[in-house]
Design goal:
The protein contains three helices and nine strands, in the order ββαββαβαββββ. By secondary structure, it is an alpha/beta fold.
């Protein structure tokens, strides 16, 4: 089971160490990537959102839980509480945890907005943004702790 670093334009990897707590590389499968991408496009014109289930120790996200955007907005997102509960229960049944949240940016780059930072609920989570601003989608992931943003690498697990 090999892991390869994803390359532009699909994904972006940060250079240098993060400025806040050390975050592991987020590893996602091709299936998780395609599910996130399909959900992002399917949510247009609004932002789409979902949760990542996986192993918090390794940073490996093996399940994507598409969620409804309760805000129904092209500028902000709110994970529907019922969808969050459903994802929590399913992850627990699989022996996984919710390790992150994904949302799309329909008109801006894949970088956390002030609203994204203010709403970041769990310091250990991966905050994944899929930007649909350009011709090719761009996925980036961040750690957000006490209002500080640190980009983390994203790897595609081929196995």
């Amino acid at each position: 089971m090999g892991t390869r670093q994803a390359t532009e334009p699909t994904m972006h990897r940060a250079c240098g160490p993060p400025s806040v707590a050390s975050f592991p590389v987020l590893a996602i499968t091709d299936d998780v990537w395609h599910e996130m991408l399909g959900h992002a496009y399917g949510g247009l014109p609004d932002e789409a959102c979902g949760l990542l289930g996986g192993d918090p120790q390794t940073g490996a996200a093996s399940v994507f839980y598409p969620c409804r955007n309760a805000a129904r907005s092209s500028r902000v997102y709110t994970v529907d509480p019922r969808d969050h509960l459903r994802a929590d229960r399913d992850a627990e049944d699989r022996g996984l945890e919710i390790i992150g949240v994904m949302h799309s940016h329909t008109h801006t780059e894949a970088y956390p907005s002030p609203t994204d930072v203010a709403q970041a609920p769990v310091p250990s989570w991966h905050y994944v943004i899929v930007s649909l601003k350009r011709t090719e989608p761009v996925l980036r992931s961040y750690g957000i702790v006490d209002g500080e943003i640190a980009e983390e690498g994203v790897g595609l697990d081929e196995g």
